Amino acid sequence: MCDVSFQVGHEQKIIKAHKLILATRSSVFHTMFEGSVPETDNIVISDVDADSFNLFLQWIYSDNLQVSSENVRQMLYISEKYMFYNGKDVCENFLKNSVSTSDSVVALQTSIEFHLMDLQRASLKYIQQYPSKCLDNAKGLNIDKECMDLILKSEEFNWTETELCKFALKWAKKQMQVIEKGTIRTK
């Protein structure tokens, strides 16, 4: 009894849903379906992958989401895009709880991307206190340039300048490998 279809992601996977449920949970969906020029069917959503969109729909239907460090950025993006503020709050709380773990770099990266200043300060503070735990891993080497700039400009780092330089060199080497493979990450 679904009455709307979405073509999602690069593969244009068809995902069916119910307009009424979506419209009651999101003002963007409400406008999309009930506005002056309503969408009818086969709505193309190319900026979100099918798995994330399915997870988002499950979230809308059930008000339950298992946020992880792997999906939190995508869920924040979708929540903002569709003005699903409850979803944004869940993601922000997850990130706040992950600040005091090795996922603090994920929290810092996400805080920059989504302009969450309190989260940014808390993440950076934790990284400054426990740099080895936070940066000496794959997640630390995968931060973007803006995140790296914040770390390098930090004056209260619990690392020697030599340790910080060694990390910066490893990070730069990783970035060069990414560029050479042609998989440059964009914001």
Automatic annotation (TrEMBL):
Q: Which Gene3D superfamilies match?
A: Potassium Channel Kv1.1, Chain A
Q: Which InterPro entries match?
A: BTB/POZ_dom (IPR000210), SKP1/BTB/POZ_sf (IPR011333)
List, for all copies, the residue spans of the domain called BTB: 2-69
Signal sequence bounds: none
SMART domains, A to Z: BTB (SM00225)
What protein name does the entry list?
A: Speckle-type POZ protein
Give any Pfam family that matches.
Answer: BTB
